[in-house]
Amino acid sequence: MNVLVTGGTGFIGSRLALRARADGHTVRVLAQVNTEAEERNRADLEGHGVECIDGSVADADRVRAAVAGMETIYHLAAAQHEANVGEEHFRRVNVEGTRNVLEAALAGGVRRVVHGSTIGVYGSAARGRLSEDTPPVPVNVYGRTKLEGERLALSYAERIPVAVVRISETYGPGDRRLLKLFRAIEAGTFFMIGRGHNLHQLIYVDDLVEGLLAAAVSEQAPGEVFVLAGPEVLTTRDMVEIIGSVLGRRGSRFTAPMWPFLLAAVVLENTLGRVGVQPPLHRRRLDFFRKSFYFAREKSAKRLGFEAKTDFRSGAESTVRWYREQGLLRG
Predict the structure, then answer these.
(1) What is residue 104's three-state secondary structure?
(2) CB atoms within 10 A of CB 29
(3) For residues 5 and 162, what is the distance between their CA atoms, to the nearest angstrom?
């Protein structure tokens, strides 16, 4: 099969593209390469026979060229962590970029589109366990525009088979988002902000890839939304203690109150952020210590036949091995 992955030089996209290539598919990725990690991922992809096209999903002409001849599309490209850009940037990528992909897929006779969304559309699990039927209440521009992109994708469902996947916090080999956490714990410099009682339901990247692949072939997937999350619900403190155990270090030595950091984040966002400077601290970065997310997994199990298997300790061990192989942890 001919497969396109947008955002394919990112953490999740590159792992998915490599897996699809290993399964014998012809794979193309459309992505912008903005970091050294993405550059390394691109070189790895090309070394495994994946075609890489430079470009943004916001460029309709580039999208049409990338979609030409494709049968399955995994749309993972997104504006996500940028803190020094306006709301229009998020809308241009997460909404209009999604429209470009869907229009090109429709014109090109694509058989299936798997639209990658985020648990960020929920806001948090303040009212209990979340499911696909829980009303989303996004609280930032990323969540709002990803929800808008979801709804746009589903509006095409009668014209093209499209499934929406809300991706939980993802970790594993290739991830650099949690690298700072692992490094701080290894160095003994990590401190907990807040009590550390908020909940996470992370998913190991290889499990997530299995779920995305299932969404591309299941006859029950088109027109539906699925949450893909891991098998365990952990507090932040649980996560830190497990990582510390894997590293042979004490997980958390000190605890600091949340409110000074939250106040500083607001001030920095309203000063540096307004003049286009990336704030060293912002509220979304504190979400790791503040927000709780835990999920029902029955729908993905029943309709996709998918169930994440990797427990956090096993996943953390694999992640540490990869970090050490890459020279990212001392070992």
Answers:
(1) helix
(2) 30
(3) 14
**Amino acid identity for residue 121 in this structure:** V
3-state secondary structure of 24: coil
Angle CA(83)–CA(75)–CA(225) in degrees, nearest 5? 95
User: Cβ distance 79 to 141 under 8 Å?
Assistant: no
d(CA 320, CA 329): 8
Asked if 62 and 55 touch (Cβ cutoff 8 Å), the reply is yes
Fold annotation for 2-188+200-234+294-325: Rossmann fold (3.40.50)
Q: What is the DSSP letter of 94?
A: I
Residue 315, classed as helix, strand or coil, is helix
The predicted structure's pLDDT at residue 253? 76
Degrees, nearest 5: CA angle 193-194-196: 95
- The two structure tokens encoding residue 295: 């999920």
CA distance 295 to 297: 6
One-letter identity of residue 92: R
Write down the H helix ranges in 161-258.
Answer: 179-187, 205-217, 236-247
Other CB atoms closer than 10 Å to residue 143's CB: what's the count? 22
pLDDT at 204: 98
Cα(259)–Cα(229) distance, integer angstroms: 29
Give the chain's residues under pLDDT 70. Answer: 82-85, 273-276, 331
User: Residue 7: left if φ>0, alpha if ψ -120 to 50, beta else—which one?
Assistant: left
Domain positions in the chain: 2-188+200-234+294-325, 235-289
Give the pTM. 0.94
- H-type alpha helices, 10-157: 11-22, 36-47, 60-67, 87-91, 97-108, 141-155
* Three-class SS state of 118: strand
Q: Which amino acid type is present at position 267? A: V
Task: Answer for the pair 225, 304: CB distance below 8 angstroms, yes or no.
Answer: no
